[in-house]
Amino acid sequence: MKTITILLLTATAASAYTLHEWGTFTTVAGSDGVLLTGLEREEAPLPTFTYSHYGLENGNLRVAPDEIVKEHGRMPILSMMKGMDRPLRGVTVKMETPVIYFHSDKAFDVSVKVGFNGGTISQWYPDRSGGETLPVPKARKTVDIKDVEDWAIDFTKPWKGSIEWQARVLSPEESRNTILFKPWESLHWMRPRVPEANAVRTANGETEGFLFYRGIGAFNPGLTTTVGADETLRLKNRTGGDIPFAFVFEKTAGTTRWMVMKEGLKAGAAAEVPVSGFTESSAAFDETVYREMVAGLTATGLLESEARAMVETWWNSYFAQNGLRVFWVVPEAKTEAILPLEVSPKPEKSVRVIVGRSEVLRPTTEREWLALSQDPDKNRREAWANLCSHDRFGLAYLKRLEALGATAAK
After folding, report:
1. How far apart are CA 197 and CA 180, in angstroms?
2. Distance CA 100, CA 165 (A)
3. Would you state the pLDDT for residue 80?
4. What's the rounded Cα separation, in Å, for the pair 217 and 94?
5. Signal peptide: which range, if any (predicted)?
6. Looking at residue 55, what is its pLDDT?
7. pLDDT of res. 79
8. Cβ neighbours of residue 243 under 8 Å, at least 6 residues apart?
9. Residues 20-62: pLDDT tens digits?
10. Buried b (16+ CB within 10 A) or exposed e, 216-248
């Protein structure tokens, strides 16, 4: 019996580790709270060594062009917009930069599977061992435009994505001696690395400080945001669980303002954020914003280094761009429902912090854009067209003005 007991303890110790994850669900809503489509435009391009489905590369081609032509009969259109070469419909959510960390005293082999209820996992690294497959164009000398419909993705219909990895989690000593640097890596790629995490290596030798994936889809993360004529932001938690932390932020020309909701928002609860409720600053970089966001993420279970990595990775996108947005931590059960995670061996503890990033349009902004789009001055109309063509959420803005125009015509 003593021998059996020792063996059981040894087996338990070998698989005792902690898994941490962070990422973002980004949405854009009109002042009426309706989520807008058109979120397939890329915000932070990935390095060329990452992987993707055909037609979702966003300019990141890791395979020689002649090989692509040989396999598919044509080259994808290299663009900063997903769906330029693979038509996408109904995209209401961008799932940005989920990274999975492992914290272990020992090396071990791990199997990871992530599902995506409502979306497709479009990009990843290291290379996966399995997961969803998407239709691709057949090799032929000429491609009829009608063929494109055969490999379009329509997110107005149910969609389930997935990805799988078989990997080796390296020991702390092996991790320290591993070179993670890669030529052509971007700042967005380097910042998620944290010194405490074990390095991960796949069978093909690809090594990184995390498992990375990104996706697009259509679902409602669960926080309803509306702004009335009084310009008060109203929040309603419809996630089915408690939101543990929220941070409301707005940036306009020369001014930033914010409100911290350290207690979050209980399931089913509502909150109002009037303009007078914000703390305001004219500083180009206010440390309070950084510290409050890091503190809120750390309180949900991330290491401080991981929280800092998330904030620094997305700082320019989160806090340097004009607009009103709400950052809120998705309840654990909601995260699991959208992104079911299967890991073998199971972690002793897991912390999954997916941040909902709800971009919100104010009525005043909508009216300004509507007037701009209809302005008799050609230059002003062109300014509006350029905004829609180049802004990360330009396609969503167009959808909102279409809805406003249709309402006004009634």
Report:
1. 12
2. 12
3. 43
4. 7
5. 1-16
6. 80
7. 42
8. 223, 237, 264, 265, 266, 328, 329, 330, 331
9. 999 999 999 999 999 999 999 888 888 989 999 888 876 554 5
10. bbbbebbbbbbbeeeeebbbbbebebbbbbbbb
Q: Give the pLDDT of residue 323.
A: 96
CB atoms within 10 A of CB 260: 17
CB contact at 8 A, 211 and 167: yes
Cis, peptide link before residue 172, omega less than 30° from 0: no
Do the Cβ atoms of 40 and 86 come closer than 8 Å? no
- Sheet of strand 270-273: strand arrangement: 223-227, 233-237, 270-273
**pLDDT under 70: residue ranges of the chain:** 1-15, 58-85, 137-148, 408-410
Q: How far is the CA of 189 from the CAs of 88, 103, 245, in angstroms?
A: 26, 20, 26
Which of 216, 205, 192, 198 has the alpha carbon at shortest distance from 127?
205
pTM of the model: 0.90
Q: Where are the domains of the chain?
A: 36-217, 362-410
Side chain identity, residue 404: L
Predicted pLDDT at 85: 62
Cβ contacts of 123 within 8 Å, gap of 6 or more: 46, 50, 51, 52, 56, 58, 60, 213, 214, 215
The residues near 143 (Cβ < 8 Å, ≥ 6 apart) are 73, 74, 137
pLDDT for residue 60: 55
- Looking up tokens 């000593």 gives 173
Please identify which residue in the block is written with the tokens 């010194």: 195
Q: Going by C-beta distance under 8 Å and a sequence separation of 6 or more, which residues neighbour residue 311?
A: 290, 293, 294, 297, 318
CA–CA dist 50, 188 (Å, integer): 13
